[in-house]
Design brief:
The structure holds two protein chains of two kinds. Chain A is mostly helical. Chain A is built from twelve helices and four strands; from the N terminus they run αββαββαααααααααα. Chain A has a single domain (76-295), classed as MetI-like (MetI-like fold, Orthogonal Bundle). In chain A, α1 packs across α12 (263-289). Chain B has helices at 6-17, 38-48, 60-68, 81-89, 149-152, 168-179, 188-201, 213-218, 229-235, 267-277, 280-290, 305-309, 331-344; strands at 26-32, 51-57, 76-80, 123-136, 162-164, 205-208, 224-228, 242-245, 251-259, 293-294, 323-325. In chain B, strands 1, 2, 3, 4, 5, 6, 7, 8, 9, 10 and 11 form an eleven-stranded mixed sheet that branches. The longest helix of chain B has 14 residues, at 188-201. Mean pLDDT of chain B is 89; it is low at 1-23. The chains are: A mainly alpha, B alpha/beta. The A-B interface holds A 39-44, 61, 63-64, 73-74, 76-77, 138-139, 161, 239-240, 243-247, 251-252, 255-262 and B 2, 59, 61-62, 64-65, 68-69, 86, 89-90, 166-169, 188-189, 202, 205-209, 221, 331, 334-335, 337-339, 341-343, 345-346.
């Protein structure tokens, strides 16, 4: 009997396992393989000829005398991507938590409507939404004109094509990924616990920091991860809203498969990124585990 | 002409797939989006009975990567000059002896021979153009020099009002012409000089983008833009005082070619199509649509008067000496170029 259930379960799970195994493991394996091959003269790679040049060139470059020199160009691009992603995560949290909290405090019918509003941006392609922000942010655009109408004659907003525009665009794009998981954890929150906190003499601030925030922590953690990780791969926003003036990791990888025709380096960059992400996730998980609310 | 919008191509694709299939044969055509007049496919189908299916890409490199990854089934791919070289050397092109095609006699000089394909065994020119820059004459009181200096060391009125192509090849090449360094240099010291020019220019650049160059000029978001000459022509429709500059230091003359990829299923149909495209009437239709010059003699009578009258497209003879063909740089040269580009964007 137990065997039967086990095998039935096995067969039910099998498609999902196969799907994930195939569509995650196979491309990753392929990229890992390409990253340790020698690049071809005309692009592509020389299959079967191994070389670790791609990984070496992440940190080192050869100077005129063919000596290896430390090169921080790529590290800087990584640092910028991580910095911008962290900033976006913080902005999204600051905006997203109150939003989720407000929604969770509404009557059921209105909650559904508000959640529906949060998901509306997903109906439109990310490219279109970025173009919309370009129209909003540019000099002579809606926001610029609005400010002028209110009396702020600054002679132009001058925000489009700057890092600020990129972080506005990224925060906007990923905000729903912050709101939804936090809302999911707040919705399940037992309101009697808050009442109990008040009964026991807690003020609003204490109730928030000692009761609500700890209970919402899993949602906050999930939201932060859902914002931070995809943000690292942002490609369109830095190109459009940043005016292509500085690269993020995805743009760098894209250029290796494009004009540079250096597939192994592009693949290696992908793996270095993966390693950074796994490392930071591990650190995060370890830190998060040490918090008491995880026991819930 | 490296990156073109995919969105428009998708609509062209949708239009094509509505055409009715006929038994006389098929042709699978791989091209940039928005780079071939849809009516011309219909005309070809009506005259030859061969049904064309279009697939589009956004850059030479995308096309190359797909062919290198083993994609087959395309009868014709359109590739830029340096990419034709790559395809021939990498064994991705089929020899079809264009010179033996009936209409090859229509091909104008110097397009009857190419450095990388001297006997034109593998390719025929589709359209060609130049990469220079355009400025709005209303934005300045001065008379601009015919020089890259105006682009790389702009006058004050253009500060912060300049658009550059977000294309490491085009930008690197232009800067190298300006300071007289070979564009495929393998010497890091020379590459450093190119980087210096680009970095000095960067504070004056509003945006690096290859998309929407025409709109950006029309909206007067920028008043100077590095552009392909066909785009410059279309910019003049909304900004009549736009001027396309042929810099005295030289400018890239690029050309796009029909190539038959290895393993093309319908080789004979591909030859029929390429031969058909060398007829003046059809070549002119392509020019009228895309705004770039074709390489066929006797197309004048079929071309739009506005196109013919525009020096940006119909280049005056005196500039012919300035044209520098596209070149397929070696891997070390590409690495230097990419490192310059990465440093510029850091």
């Amino acid at each position: 009997m137990g065997n039967l259930i086990r095998s039935k379960r096995f067969w039910l799970i099998a498609p999902a396992v196969l799907y994930i195994g195939f569509f995650m493991a196979v491309p990753l394996g392929q990229m890992a393989y390409v990253s340790i091959l020698e690049r071809g003269d005309y692009g592509a790679v020389n299959w079967g000829v191994f070389s670790f040049d791609a990984y070496a060139s992440f940190l080192f470059e050869r100077d005129l005398m063919d000596n290896l020199m430390f090169n921080t160009d790529y590290l800087q691009i990584f640092a910028r991507s991580f910095g911008l992603s962290a900033m976006t995560m913080v902005f999204a949290l600051v905006l997203g938590f109150p939003t989720a909290f407000y929604i969770s405090m509404q009557p059921q019918a209105r909650r559904n409507f508000l959640i529906f509003l949060v998901t509306i941006p997903f109906w439109t392609n990310i490219l279109v939404r970025n173009y919309a922000w370009m129209l909003l942010l540019r000099n002579g655009g809606l926001i610029d004109n609005g400010l002028a109408w209110l009396g702020y004659e600054s002679g132009g907003l001058d925000i489009l094509y700057t890092p600020y525009a990129v972080s506005i665009g990224l925060t906007y794009t990923y905000l729903p990924f912050m709101v939804l998981p936090i809302y999911a954890s707040l919705e399940k929150l037992d309101h009697r616990l808050i009442e109990a906190a008040f009964d026991l003499g807690a003020d609003k601030w204490r109730a928030m920091t000692r009761v609500i925030l700890p209970l919402a922590a899993p949602g906050i953690a999930a939201g932060c991860i859902l914002v931070f990780i995809p943000c690292l791969g942002a490609y369109v926003t830095p190109e459009l809203l940043g005016g292509g003036k500085f690269m993020m990791i995805a743009n760098l990888i894209g250029s290796q498969f494009g004009a540079a025709r250096n597939w192994p380096f592009g693949a290696a960059l992908g793996f270095v990124l993966l390693a950074f992400v796994l490392l930071s996730m591990m650190i995060y998980a370890m830190k998060f585990k040490s918090l008491p609310e995880e026991k819930l | 002409m490296k990156i073109r919008s995919v969105l428009l191509g998708a609509s062209a694709l949708a239009m094509l797939s509505m055409g009715t299939a006929r038994a006389d044969g098929e042709l699978f055509f791989y091209n940039w989006s928005n780079y071939f007049p849809p009516e011309l496919f219909e005309k070809f189908e009506a005259e030859t009975g061969i049904k064309v299916t279009l697939d589009v890409y956004d850059s030479n490199e995308t096309m190359l990567a797909k062919l290198q990854a083993g994609a087959s089934g395309y009868d014709i791919a359109v590739a830029s000059d340096y990419m034709v070289d790559v395809m021939i050397k990498d064994g991705l092109a089929t020899e079809f002896d264009a010179k033996n095609l009936e209409n090859f006699g229509n091909v104008a000089k110097p397009h009857d021979t190419m450095e990388y394909d001297p006997d034109r065994k593998y390719s025929v020119t589709y359209l060609w153009g130049t990469t220079g820059f355009t400025y709005d004459a209303d934005a300045t009181d001065g008379e601009l020099e015919q020089s890259w200096k105006e682009f790389f060391e702009p006058r004050e009125e253009f500060h912060g009002k300049i658009g550059a192509l977000n294309d490491e090849v085009e930008m690197y090449n232009a800067a190298s012409y300006y300071i007289g360094v070979p564009k495929c240099t393998e010497d890091p010291a020379e590459a450093q000089k190119v980087l210096d020019v680009l970095q000095k220019q960067k504070p004056y650049i509003a945006v690096y983008s290859s998309e929407g160059t025409i709109d950006r000029m029309s909206a007067r978001e920028v008043t100077m833009h590095m552009q392909w000459n066909g785009a410059a022509h279309r910019t003049k429709e909304s900004i009549p005082n736009a001027v396309f500059v042929y810099p005295k230091e030289g400018l890239t003359y690029w050309s796009d070619h029909f190539v038959v990829p290895k393993g093309a299923p319908n080789l004979e149909n591909a030859k029929t199509f390429i031969n058909w495209m060398m007829m003046p009437e059809n070549a002119a239709a392509a020019s009228n649509y895309a705004g770039y010059m074709n390489a066929v003699k006797g197309t004048e009578d079929f071309m739009d008067p506005a196109l013919k009258a525009d020096p940006a497209v119909n280049m005056p003879e005196e500039y012919a000496g300035l044209l520098i063909p596209g070149q397929n740089c070696s891997a070390p040269a590409r690495d230097l170029r990419n490192r310059v580009w990465t440093k510029l964007k850091n």
